[in-house]
Write a structure and sequence with these properties.
Blueprint lengths: L6 H10 L2 E4 L3 H10 L5 E3 L9 E2 L2 E4 L3 H5 L3 E4 L6
Parallel strand pairs: 1-2, 1-5, 2-4
Antiparallel strand pairs: 3-4
Length: 81
């Protein structure tokens, strides 16, 4: 189910669940800073940053296997394709 979370609800979710940020870079950084959370993993389609470390975690390309191990995904991308 898709939902919009407040900063506090996101923090609570992160404390007890594996979350992923979908989209690396500025929005992910600002979301992490504002909500005081770090994702379990960052997912991004850009092959140039695959395996880079951001926010203390690794940037991975999307895959069904990767997503199946995540409890929630926070969209931190400005790109819509």
């Amino acid at each position: 189910m898709i939902s919009v979370l407040s900063d506090q609800k996101l923090k609570s979710l992160c404390d007890k669940s594996k979350i992923a940020f979908w989209g690396a870079g500025y929005i992910a950084s600002k979301t992490s800073e504002r909500c005081n959370v770090n994702p379990h993993i960052i997912i991004d389609n850009n092959p140039d940053i695959e395996e880079d470390k951001q926010l203390g975690t690794v940037v991975k390309k999307p895959s069904n296997e990767l997503i199946s191990n995540i409890d929630a995904i926070v969209i931190t991308s400005t790109s819509i394709l």
